[in-house]
Each structure stands twice: as structure tokens, then as C-alpha cells.
Amino acid sequence: MSFETFKFTAEIIKAISDVGYKNPTEIQKKSIPQIIKKNDVLASAQTGTGKTAAFILPILQLLMKDKNKVKGPRVLIISPTRELANQISGSIKKYARYIHINSVTVTGGMSYTYQNKNLSKSIDILIATPGRLIDLFKQKKIKFNDIKIMVLDEADKMLDMGFIPDIRKIFNATSKQQQMLMFSATLDNSVSKIAKEFLKNPIIISITPKIKGHINIEQYLYYVDNQFHKQQLLKHFLSDINLKQAIIFTATKRQADKLTDDLYHSDFKIAALHGDMSQGSRTKTINRFKKNQIKVLIATDLASRGIDVKNITHVFNYDIPRFSEDYIHRIGRTGRANKKGQAISFISPSDKEYLQKIERFTKMKIMVKIVPGMEPTKTSEDYSKKKIKSLFKKSKKNFKNKLNAKKRIKRKIIKKINQSKDARSAIE
Length: 428
Description:
CATH superfamily of the largest domain: P-loop containing nucleotide triphosphate hydrolases
CATH topology of the largest domain: Rossmann fold
Number of helices: 15
Oligomer: single chain
């Protein structure tokens, strides 16, 4: 199957060709025809499967067919983070390079003056993060009257980050008649519940992740007591003579900067890579890493997307990812070109839940190891016992609260009955 199968306009086909794509991916094969038919779609696909193009390309096709001139926006794409929003914006610019489509991105961290100026023009596609979109809506800088298509990208992450109440407010401000597209890495019960609220008879598409591609990667986990213990273990591994280049993944931009500062005086070149850096700085850092001028890169998930370096021998999950598919994406940076690689994860007591999700997702148990002389004071069993004890305490507390509430209600009823009896006695 080729992209011509979808009967895209010549301009869109030319843009796809310029990017270098010849054949659609699985998610594109299944999603594009349904979106062009204007069906609501609930799709599950991992990062790196061509998910973004799966909704952008048919949206551009539909916009070109719709000749109605409105102030807009005609399409609203909501993303959980500004890094993702900017990536979507970049993709739209690539695929719409030969057609006249005005897209605007509004995210936190941008100047309101700059964004308000862009919002005063006619808009075809608006890409936004929930928080900034709500702010602009409250300020009456934007209306949703003309929306024909609404996209919720990375819905599982928006759910996890607590954005659903904001999404609900935005959705309720629309006509609710627009075509709804929802993309998520997973289709668990919580995502399905949200889909029922926003989508009408959606076409459900699920692309099974290819996990078996990491046969060249040895995966290990090390239990840690605290941040100091974790950093000592990391320094131990960074001194390994077999380490050629490595990526250390952190959960936040602040943690990436802090760890870079802490390791600044090490014997190797080290640099941070995250979304707060300018695009120029990020590009320069990635190029230096590719040329092996930087040995260790400390990065966040979103900022590191698109890095393809064959000499990466080690990947460190300094902070275990909250989403299982991010784990797959991270460790896939090593073990390339038939070379061996190591993926090392540090697990603290609070990470146990995420570890279990990863092991269920990958259908494998990650081998637990220790460094002699740097053993954790608690074993994995201790962590499990601690969690069970915590859950038991919580359950016991909830039970006591419910019992006390019932007792209070009972006392109130008895009091009212007694008051009623006293009143009747007084009358008699």
C-alpha cells in the first residue's frame, strides 16, 4: 500500500515524498481512511509508529475539501505537554508546506502578547496544551464555535497528569457535534471511560507494540534507598570501561539539570537535553553527542525523541518512567546495529507500581542485581511488605471512618426520635 491509496491531493503527496516516507505504517493504514470518512476514532499506538501523521494527513485533506471561510479554529489539537505540542506543530508545517493552512500553537511558557497576536488572525488548526487553552478561553481570547475536528493526543498521559477536568470544560464549550479523535498509548479502563464521554460510536484501532526488538539488550534493575544511594550507583556504572556512550533518563527537566551539575566534575563530557533549552541549543547538543564529543547525555523523554546514535552502549533509567511504552522507547536507544547494549533501571520504594506495570507490559521479569558493597538496606520483598502494610493501614482507616460515620448517623436518628417523643409528651 502507498500513500496514493488514500487519494490525498498532489500537494500533500509531494510533502510526504519530501519527508522521505513511501509506505504508510499500520496505524496510518487503519486510521487515515476512518478519519477521512469523518468517523470518531479511538486509537492506541506507541511512540515512533507514525501516530502523529496518522491524524495530521487526513485532517489536512479534510480542510482542503472544506471551502467555508471562518475565523476558526476549525481544528483543535490538545496535547499534554508543550514539547509534544511543538512536535505536532512541526509535523503540520512539514506536511502543509505546499498548501495554505494557518496553524497556531499556544502553550505555557510562551508570551501572551505573542499568542494573542496570532489568535487575532484566522486559524485553521490550533495546537494547545490544556492549561494555556483554558486561560485564553477564560480571557475570551478564543472561541470554539467553528471547530469541526477535535483531537486528544496522548490521552492516557493527560489522564495521568490530571487534565481531564480542563478537557471537559473545553469540550463543553464546543458544539459537541465535531468529529472527535483520541489517541493513546494504551486502551485501559480509565481511557475507555473517558472515550465514552467524548466520542460517539468510535472506530477502535489498536496497534500491538513490537516488544521483541530488544534481543540485544541486557536489562537489569537495582534497588536504591534514596537519591544519594542512586547517584553513587550511577557513578559506579559510569566508570565502566565498556561504556562508550550513554543516555541517562530523568523524569523532569529540573532533575536533568541538577544531575548534570552534580556530575560536572566527572572525567567525561556530559550534557543535559530537555524542553527548556532553545531549539538551537538542543540541536547543537544532539549533534555533539552524535559526533561523540559528548559521552553522557542526561535527557527527558520528550526532548530525546529522534536521537539515533549507534554507539550508545548503556541506557540508565535514573527515574523509572511512569508509562510502560516510554520504557520500551528509552531502552531501544541501545543495542542497535546488531550491537549489545545494557539498560539499567534504579528502583526506589515508590517505584514498585511502575515496575510491575512495565513487567506486565513487556511480559518479562527484569533481573535484579546488586553491586557488592553498595547493597540496598531493604530488599524487594521489604518494599512489597511496606506497600502491603501501607494499604492495610489505609484500608483499616477507611473502615474505621465508615464505621464512625454510621455511628454518627445512628446517634442523630436516635436523638431525633427522642426529641419527637419529648415533644409529644409536652403536648399531652
